[in-house]
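Continuing from yesterday's entry. The apo prediction looked reasonable, so today I'm repeating it with NAP included to see how the binding region is handled. Same sequence as before; SMILES copied from the compound registry.
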Amino acid sequence: MAGKHALITGSSRGIGRGIALKLAEAGATIGVHYYQNEAAAKETLRMVKERGADGAIFQADVTKPEQIERLFKEVRSRFPSLDIFVSNARPEAVHFFYPPADITLEQIDAAFDSQVKAVVIGAREAGKIMSEGGRIIAITYGAGSRTGGLLPWVAMGSAKAAMESLVRYFAVAFAKRGITVNAISPGWTEDSVLNSLPDPVQKLIRDWHQQGWTPMRRLGTPADVGDVVSLFCSPQANWITGQVIFADGGASLMNPEVPPKIQLG
Ligand SMILES: NC(=O)c1ccc[n+]([C@@H]2O[C@H](COP(=O)([O-])OP(=O)(O)OC[C@H]3O[C@@H](n4cnc5c(N)ncnc54)[C@H](OP(=O)(O)O)[C@@H]3O)[C@@H](O)[C@H]2O)c1
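Holo prediction written out below.
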């Protein structure tokens, strides 16, 4: 990926950082984006450089459409091209995590502005400056967009469903230019928002997956997700577009009607 330029929103921490580091290892120049945590963004950039790649830091609030437009203006002024755009950032849980009967319109807006409008603006702006071989990747959560059991996920889950739909429309719109648009759906991932949950909740989630809900019997890591994004950015992935790819150690294959103990034999 030498000579290629990538922008990854929310790459100061968590999964976004994992993606930034894998693309850096492949030689891409990295646009590290953050919201409030400049020190974390600087640390990601230091790690990018440690891997022999170059990069620059960008700041924007992805819940504000005008700030995403400004972000792309800055990218255009600092990068000669943009080859990879990964829409990964998501506001802190407090801005969207509330059950259906009590969710506020502000929380719905935070989810839809950051997951739907951000992809519309990001894909549109990225599309203007990408050439053949360009890659647009949205980070979704397929379990959230397809189920209804985790009640406080109602805003984010429905926004992710819209994000996955957008991916298909942009995929068709950009196909003739050789630009692919896909969504990657990680399962529960270490070193991410998970680590901000209360310890007992983290333990319940880890145990559940280690006991078999994830057939590979561990949680994912930001590096796992970074590897998958890197794979989709390779020329060998030219023919895959408009898809939602589950990168979750097999968790999405499990049947929710049967306890893992019985399914796994
Ligand atoms: N974690 C999981 O298990 C999991 C599973 C499936 C899918 N996902 C998806 O993966 C993506 C990343 O999740 P994560 O858990 O890695 O997140 P995270 O560790 O909580 O990191 C959030 C990132 O987004 C940035 N951010 C927060 N609020 C923002 C705002 N208003 N505007 C712009 N950027 C903002 C943060 O920047 P600052 O550092 O400046 O605050 C940080 O870089 C999300 O789309 C999520 O839905 C996560």
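Comparison notes:
- Residues 10, 12-16, 34-37, 40, 61-63, 88-92, 139, 141, 186, 188-189, 192-194 surround NAP (CB under 6 Å).
- The mean pLDDT is 97.
Will overlay with the apo model tomorrow.
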